[in-house]
């Protein structure tokens, strides 16, 4: 996969994460407190994993000891942190060479054990991981009477990628 394609997929992720958070924001907090909380937990989990793999790819320590945080951020907080995180990915990936993308990186899994993956495999994992969990969030949004965003690349490419 070339760098331009990766940047497009990261821009898609930034857009659909934002759209998903907007859908959560529209859910009545008092009527659907438990499901709305679960939506935020899932989105925060996506964010934590995004941060973990961003640190792994850039050779930094992430500081996480679990795949979610004890506290649950607000929708507004997630809108800022998720957007900033993906902007960081876009900047980093834009500066990578094909050799950087194919480089094998050793890392430690948060739940124990050692791993090694290429940077491109880490990026693919991060992109697909978010899609999986946003699907669950979309289902919960629908159960609460909301409208889940169309989490598909075709809509992004048609309507939002310039």
TrEMBL record:
Domain of life the protein comes from: Bacteria
A Pfam cross-reference name: DinB
Residue positions binding a divalent metal cation: 45, 129, 133
GO terms, molecular function: metal ion binding
Entry annotated with the keyword Chaperone: no
Gene3D superfamilies referenced in this protein's UniProt entry, alphabetically: dinb family like domain
The keyword Metal-binding is annotated on this UniProt entry: yes
Keywords noted in UniProt: Metal-binding
InterPro entries given in the database record: DinB, DinB/YfiT-like
Cleaved signal peptide residues: none
Stored PANTHER family: PROTEIN DINB, SLR1116 PROTEIN
Family: Belongs to the DinB family.
Protein known as: Diguanylate cyclase
Species assigned in the record: Mixta gaviniae
